[in-house]
Amino acid sequence: MKIVSFGDSFVYGSELNNEIDDAWPAISARILNCQYETYAIPGCGNDRIVQQVYNFLSKNSVTDVLIVINWTWISRWDFFITKNSCNFFDVTQIRQETYETMAGVDWPTYQHFVKGNYYVNETVYKELQNFCKSYIGVGSGKWFTLGPTCTPKKLDWIHETSADALLNFYNDYTGKSLLWNKFRNLQAILSCQYILESMKVKNIQTYMDHELLDSTQPDMSPEYVQAMQKIISPKLELFENNMNFLEWARYNKYPVTDWPGDHPLEEAHQAAAELWFSKYKAKLL
């Protein structure tokens, strides 16, 4: 049996001492003696989460697999920038924790890797190339996310004119349109739920943003939006007392990092694993 998770930093386990390994889906998998994989991407949007789910489903068997998804904030927008709009891709963009998680036994140390010292055989070199391509998009371009905390410094890998245009577009239009954000995110989640259902994939879905299903503002939730909300809402769950993970952690007074991180720490993830593992077990059996 295997648990495979998708989401953003909350599922990835950002700011934990052992990122990935101490995130609540990983702990739940250990309790259940299951294999565990995560495709969570810190800071990503829901379009990127859907893309990761589709990528996994296209390449893997889903027999005895439970997919765990934690949908993120709807104000985040995922873009794909082609390579000709980018500055030189620097391998130092790859974090040490990510590299060491993926590294094979014959791979160079992270320090040698970022310095370009690949004193390895041809097979290992090809594995390293594939790793770089999958992580930073050396092929045709790169996925990235704009959101409320995005600053110009985070876009220094894009040509300056392109970065300015994207930030202005987000700040002036996409980031300010709640209706647009709802419509786009609901479509993405609806399509993902349809694929999971059609393939009979076991799954549990939680979410962070209450605005996703809010319908109290008629001009922000017209009938076509409410129609999608009614379809996806039965498949979405929250933590206790209708709280998302962050709210639940704060309510229970578990340690949470300061803004802009706002990441629950080890105690919260351990408690979340204990909260969810029985539901995960019921789905897997």
CATH topology of the largest domain: Rossmann fold
The backbone outline, from C-alpha atoms, is globular
Mean pLDDT metric = 88
Summed up, the helix count is 11
Which residues sit in consecutive blocks of at least 5 with pLDDT less than 50?
A: none
Please indicate the percent range of residues in DSSP E strands (runs of 2 or more). 5-15%
Number of domains: 2
Enumerate the strands of the largest sheet in spatial order, edge to edge or round the barrel: 2-1-3-6-7
- Sheet with most strands: 5 strands, parallel
Please identify the top-level CATH class of the largest domain.
Answer: Alpha Beta
Based on DSSP secondary structure assignment, what is the total number of beta strands?
7
CATH superfamily of the largest domain: SGNH hydrolase
Helix content: 40-55%
CATH architectural name of the largest domain: 3-Layer(aba) Sandwich
Order of helices and strands: EHHEHEEHHHEHHEHEHH
Rg result = 20 Å
Our measurement of the CA-to-CA distance between the termini, rounded to an integer number of angstroms, reads 9 Å
Class derived from helix and strand content: alpha/beta
